[in-house]
Amino acid sequence: MAGSTTGHMFRVTTWGESHGPAVGCVIDGCPPGLRLDASVVQRELDRRKPGQAKTSTTRREADICEILSGVFEGKTTGTPISILVWNKDARSGAYEDIKDLFRPGHGDLSYQARYGIRDWRGGGRASARETIGRVAAGAVAGQLLFEKGIAVRVFTLALGGVKAEKLDMEAVHGNPYGCPDSEAALAMDARVEEVKKAGDSIGGLVELWIDGLPAGLGDPVFDKLDGDLASAMMGIGAVKSVEIGAGFAVADLKGSESNDAMAAQGFLSNNSGGILAGISSGARVVLRLAVKPIPSIGIPQQTVDIHGAPATIVTRGRHDVSAIPRILPVAEAMAKLVIADHMLRWRAIQ
Amino acid sequence: MAGSTTGHMFRVTTWGESHGPAVGCVIDGCPPGLRLDASVVQRELDRRKPGQAKTSTTRREADICEILSGVFEGKTTGTPISILVWNKDARSGAYEDIKDLFRPGHGDLSYQARYGIRDWRGGGRASARETIGRVAAGAVAGQLLFEKGIAVRVFTLALGGVKAEKLDMEAVHGNPYGCPDSEAALAMDARVEEVKKAGDSIGGLVELWIDGLPAGLGDPVFDKLDGDLASAMMGIGAVKSVEIGAGFAVADLKGSESNDAMAAQGFLSNNSGGILAGISSGARVVLRLAVKPIPSIGIPQQTVDIHGAPATIVTRGRHDVSAIPRILPVAEAMAKLVIADHMLRWRAIQ
Amino acid sequence: MAGSTTGHMFRVTTWGESHGPAVGCVIDGCPPGLRLDASVVQRELDRRKPGQAKTSTTRREADICEILSGVFEGKTTGTPISILVWNKDARSGAYEDIKDLFRPGHGDLSYQARYGIRDWRGGGRASARETIGRVAAGAVAGQLLFEKGIAVRVFTLALGGVKAEKLDMEAVHGNPYGCPDSEAALAMDARVEEVKKAGDSIGGLVELWIDGLPAGLGDPVFDKLDGDLASAMMGIGAVKSVEIGAGFAVADLKGSESNDAMAAQGFLSNNSGGILAGISSGARVVLRLAVKPIPSIGIPQQTVDIHGAPATIVTRGRHDVSAIPRILPVAEAMAKLVIADHMLRWRAIQ
Amino acid sequence: MAGSTTGHMFRVTTWGESHGPAVGCVIDGCPPGLRLDASVVQRELDRRKPGQAKTSTTRREADICEILSGVFEGKTTGTPISILVWNKDARSGAYEDIKDLFRPGHGDLSYQARYGIRDWRGGGRASARETIGRVAAGAVAGQLLFEKGIAVRVFTLALGGVKAEKLDMEAVHGNPYGCPDSEAALAMDARVEEVKKAGDSIGGLVELWIDGLPAGLGDPVFDKLDGDLASAMMGIGAVKSVEIGAGFAVADLKGSESNDAMAAQGFLSNNSGGILAGISSGARVVLRLAVKPIPSIGIPQQTVDIHGAPATIVTRGRHDVSAIPRILPVAEAMAKLVIADHMLRWRAIQ
């Protein structure tokens, strides 16, 4: 029943509910001597903060983090780093009248089945607010990786059926959707507007690139790099599919097509997505995630209450229209946690 | 560097190389009093044994298992169950002349990078023979689940571009490919014949159904049921994509389409694939895997040797043409291990 | 390098330094539905609070705890319980001038060797203030055990050479030393007075009794109940010896003396201390700990600085004269954590 | 219920029952490139083999080990090392007529309570034969430590009340009791003779020295070096007390006596036993264990059967008179496992 900790060497525990007093994380195993202050963490939290794109909830949280331990005179000491963010703009009233209904697509039913009790306010522990702890921890991991020349990039491949046709990394930060195709981003914007008006929500595709990884990362046979990345990504609320490299497409390839030939300069293709037999090959690691639409919508839906009686529900509250783009820093953080942990396990970071 | 153990309560460690003396597993945490004898394990090992479909290697192994501990008078005692299978038909000669070359699509390069040394005979630890330990352990887990009315089914959705058009569970065991569409199975057979002749290999799609799960299984937020299943599946050698429920397709759905409405009789659809917020919902758990073609092919490929010098390689040896169907019992075993572990963690099994 | 988490099912992570902003813990895996409010935790924290016996530091901390997550409407929800206590009366000035000296008997040298950096203020992470997180978590575990009829008692067998001659449990709470012999407690008081005047410190002996345990608790062969209790106790700052049952004395016994004969009414003696082959036998679990004197003393000591140069040090600051009695609630808390974890692992608690 | 694995980075799982087909272990996480062959392991197994001292059982086992994986061309490959020893001279007949009786001082009752079923032949999993796996794994760990200049020594301080008065390390291997005092060893021999005649058994004291450890080893606050060593030692069948450094004696010391002063050349005393705040200080690590008498004796004892009915039992079979000296290589092995694991966790071994 204790599932809130991830990592072996770089170990992260998150805690907190959407409408409780605060959310946060404890990072244990961060090497000593790493430069760290709250601004490093704050920068990443600001990326996932609500209210920056049209897709976002109108809940207003400054999400200011406090580092409560593990840092002394601007450097980590090797002891646990506790990071806390207070919840301020929680409005539980909107949830009061649906507290006995199971919202379709949400974890209400499954949490109730598991625990027999749940904090129904704002999704409780299943809320996206839980990811604050992940993003904060990912920011610390990111500092470690930065020093090793490892970079994680994440962008939106598709949103509500609108696909990026170009992969222009310069464009990614120039639009609110993290899309590497500026024109597609405009079309996404229009799509969001339209869906919002209809009270509906949309899904999309997200891609991650991890560059600078040494070959040799990953522990066969159950703690493989691809296995751990898949777990980290599938464990993000809205993700229903994880692909590595050519991913789904390998089903239709022949061996002579899918094998990545090698030459003196390196691999001649990257269908493997940078991972062979669960261990990094030195090529770019490529991941693709399918993100389901936000389940909270303004359209009436058929459901049951906690006693099994049929009911109709409209999930008001202040909700995102899509988990994209706010899921981007979360996916990036999870990738960083996995990589930092494996780097430490392999002693590629001292 | 210790990645050969999976599970927390139902903990499995596999060991062994393709051309070493033996392969096996140790299962720790199996509840006492479970009826178990070697025949239960043998039945599952026979399913993954080489030589049963045209896709298979011609290596001939009887793969007879011995249970060395943890069972007394036909019942488990709660102590570790050690299962061993001797390697008999290993022919290392075929590997001797390519031992310094990195086979494209294989783990040679990544293992070399990680360990600086590797048993090059038959793929060593990265060989499919390692899955014997998984399948043996899965057979034990399966006994536990059977007593709880939980059933795992696995079948081939597509092979080398040939797709099953029907999901006839009766048909699955009537053809060598585990295909739920008898006609498609014939076409698959023709496809295999053709690819084999060309010295090439093919990939495909596999689907798993888990029925009988209680709602409430899965530990938020990092040991979720979907995260653990994704890790288990992506950690199987040839798998490059894992989907749950509607999977990849959710990217194009709207919330009003992807949400599974509920009525007194249960869910009215199953886009969630039986998992909500990482916890089972009581609906069927549905997983889909994309399986890459076997990287060993008879066609010359461009590669490098361990010193980085360019070379051409033909990977002879005795190889499967596709990981399908032999991957089916492996995927099934991994699913059983994850479920058994979560059932014990949740105390749904005493 | 991540060693701040203990337990498998009832998993506790502590964080925080003596002179940082706060200290605390996260408890993951506490079953849902347990009655819990801050007062339950506060009661235990008050027992370890400084300033209640002559042995204690004059640091004045109210040590008021806040529960930040995992509790809803007075009951646990099964999600992580985050508990925080702010540090208020930290005075780092006293440490400023000895920050480059290794205090004898303290962890200064070993922490420096491990991390190359340390928060020298008040002992940093090696301070007794870290135990606040343990005691808070132990209070939650204690609630669980209380409902199962399991009671942990702890008392002072000896202090500064003064030994309890009686084991009168009524007397334990009637004196500031937790001594089961009221007369001995008076002699302990005189001893403390005398040692304090001399600027010195003293050690002692502590005993724990765990009653109400079912037979069958403990996981052979490496997670035995006695092994886990020994680890928990030896991991408390000042403890240098752990005995179970007859303990050290078994070395001089014969088998015919040390074996506990059994009759219909139970065991006829308890040399085993309630544990056989690492598993509880149903008899009272008995543990004995030797506690070393507080290393901070007012008497000049010979030492070296971080560069290895010889120096003389007087460790001023506000220190306890003995870890007893403040170590009593810490040892009790650690015992509760071990028992709660094993009860959950064995599914003796649902 | 899975307690047969120890270590995080150097992870060891033991399996096997006394009268099952075999016993063994799997070592996962051993670094690649370590010279290893069966003779290294055999040497240590020979030290714990029955029949070398008068204290020993007359069971005759050659205890020849086979290494089944993880070693290629005389070197470890980084993959799991599986080691197996067949049971040959098991005679279950002697146990047949006491299979329903709980032997005093043994784990019969506690195993029965835990599992509701047990392999009663020869103590099953609770037999000393389980330690074969530990000793084999310890031999591998020892190879690692040897390369780092770390040495573990173990000797008998007392046996059946006869105490070593000298600590002459040369003498240790010159007598069958591992006693550092040759004269005391003779007295021990006489004592054993006498006790054997009486059908009784005896306990004793064992001491371990670990030299060559770097300062800085150990993970605060729950995976401390002293906590992990205490767990490892207390988890050995017959051990009822573990002391570190001055151990039990600290209870009577003053701070000015127990603190180890430091000078340029190092510590001026070693009451801390080489561990400060749970982390190695660079001084010799000193451990002392109290070992209880073997519970199997030829003298009738009062007990109950599995239904609770009173009975008298004589535990025939072929038993040691004392766990000493055969416990020596086991304690040494456990120390090596803990140290190797911590060296890897701290990246002091690459």
UniProtKB/TrEMBL annotation, chains A, B, C, D:
Catalysed conversion reaction: 5-O-(1-carboxyvinyl)-3-phosphoshikimate = chorismate + phosphate
Task: Give any Gene Ontology cellular component.
Answer: cytosol
Give the cofactor binding note: Reduced FMN (FMNH(2)).
A GO molecular function assigned to this protein is:
FMN binding
Q: In which pathway does it act?
A: Metabolic intermediate biosynthesis; chorismate biosynthesis; chorismate from D-erythrose 4-phosphate and phosphoenolpyruvate: step 7/7
* One GO term of the biological process aspect: amino acid biosynthetic process
Q: Which domain of life is it from?
A: Bacteria
**Which of this chain's residues are annotated to bind FMN?**
R125, A126, S127, A277, K292, P293, I294, P295, S296, R318
Q: Which cofactor does it need?
A: FMNH2
- Reported EC number(s) for this entry are 4.2.3.5
Gene3D superfamilies in the record: Chorismate synthase AroC (3.60.150.10)
Residue positions annotated to bind NADP(+) are R48, K54
The family database entries (InterPro entries) matched by this protein are listed as: Chorismate_synth, Chorismate_synth_AroC_sf, Chorismate_synthase_CS
- Pfam families in alphabetical order: Chorismate_synt (PF01264)
Q: Does the keyword Heme apply?
A: no
Alphabetically list the UniProt keywords. Amino-acid biosynthesis, Aromatic amino acid biosynthesis, FAD, Flavoprotein, FMN, Lyase, NADP
Q: What class of enzyme is it?
A: lyase
What family name appears in the similarity comment?
Belongs to the chorismate synthase family.
Q: Describe, as the record does, how this protein assembles with itself and its partners.
A: Homotetramer.
The task this protein performs is described as:
This reaction introduces a second double bond into the aromatic ring system.
- Protein name in UniProt: Chorismate synthase
Q: Which gene encodes it?
A: aroC
